[in-house]
Amino acid sequence: MRQIVALLVLVFLGFPSQASAQDGPRLSLAAVQASKDFKAYLDKTANDKNQLDLSSPPGSTLFAAIFDTKAVEALPPPTGPDLPWLSEWLGVAASSYVGIINFSADPRGEPLQKAVQENVARYEDNLSVAMDFLLRLMPRMAIAADAFMESLPEKDRNLPARQQGMAQVRNGYMQTVTGAITFIGGSPKADNSRLLAKALRDTVDVWSKRANAEERTQFLSQLAQARTGAKDSTVDDHLIAVSTAIAAIQ
C-alpha cells in the first residue's frame, strides 16, 4: 500500500517517468517524418518570400518533434541495437538544423555568409535549442556505435567501411562541439549561452575522450576565447568545468 501511495504522489507531482526502450524507435520515426514535412515547410516559405515562423504551427510543431530534447533525456542508456534509429534521428536533426541556417540563402545571389549570419541572428533561440539537442543526442550515438563495434568479431570490426563510418561519427561530433563553443563566444543571448554551456559540461566526459591531443588543445583555446565573449558567471562556471575536465585527460 505504501508503494502505491508513493507512486500516486509521484504522478500527481508530475515526476517524469523514464521512457521505455521501445520509445526510441518510435520517436525517431516521428522525427524522420517531421523532418520531411519541415523541409517542405522551409521550401514553401522561402518560395513565397516569407520569414519562418517557428513559434506557431506548423513550424513549431514540426521543430518540436525533431528536436525533442526532453524525450531523449528520458530514454534508457544507449546500447548497440539502438544505433540504426539513433543514426536516423541524428541525421534528420542535423539536416533540419542546416536547413534553418541556410534558409532562403542563394549561393548564386547575395553572399551566402551574409544570409547565414542573418538567419543565425533571426533564429538564434531555435538554433540554440537545436544545437542543445544535437549535443545531447550525439553522446548516445557515440556510445551506441562503440557498443555495436564491440559486439562484432574483430575481422568485421576492422572492415575499412566500418572504420571509416566510426571516423565520420567522431569527426562530426568534434565539429559540433567546436560549433557550440564558437557560438557561445559570439555573445548570443545569455539564456542561449547558458543552455549550450551546460550541454557541453553535461557531456564533456563523452566527447573529450574521443578528441585527440591536438583537438583538446584547440578546445581549450576556444573555450578561453568563449569565456571572454560570454561575460556571464553561469556560463563561465560551466566552461571552466569543461576546460578542467579536458585538461585532466592524460
Written description of the protein model:
- The structure is a single chain.
- With 250 residues, the protein is mainly α.
- Helices cover 75% and strands 0% of the residues.
- The protein has helices at residues 2-12, 23-47, 59-66, 69-74, 83-101, 112-122, 124-150, 154-157, 160-185, 190-207, 213-230, 233-247.
- Helix 7 (124-150) runs antiparallel to helix 9 (160-185).
- The longest helix is centred in the middle third of the chain and has 27 residues, at 124-150.
- It is globular and about 55 Å long.
Low-confidence parts, pLDDT < 50 over ≥5 residues? 1-19
The radius of gyration over CA amounts to 20 Å
Q: What is the mean pLDDT?
A: 89
Proportion in β-strands: under 5%
**What shape does the CA trace take?**
globular
| N- to C-terminal distance | 52 Å
Number of helices: 12
Helix and strand element order: HHHHHHHHHHHH
Largest sheet: none
Number of strands: 0
What's the helical proportion of residues?
over 70%
Classification by helices and strands? mainly alpha
Keyword list:
250 residues; globular; mainly alpha; single chain
Topology:
Blueprint lengths: L1 H11 L10 H25 L11 H8 L2 H6 L8 H19 L10 H11 L1 H27 L3 H4 L2 H26 L4 H18 L5 H18 L2 H15 L3
Helix pairs in contact: 2-3, 2-5, 5-7, 7-9, 7-10, 9-10, 9-11, 10-12, 11-12
Quick take:
By secondary structure, this protein is mainly alpha-helical.
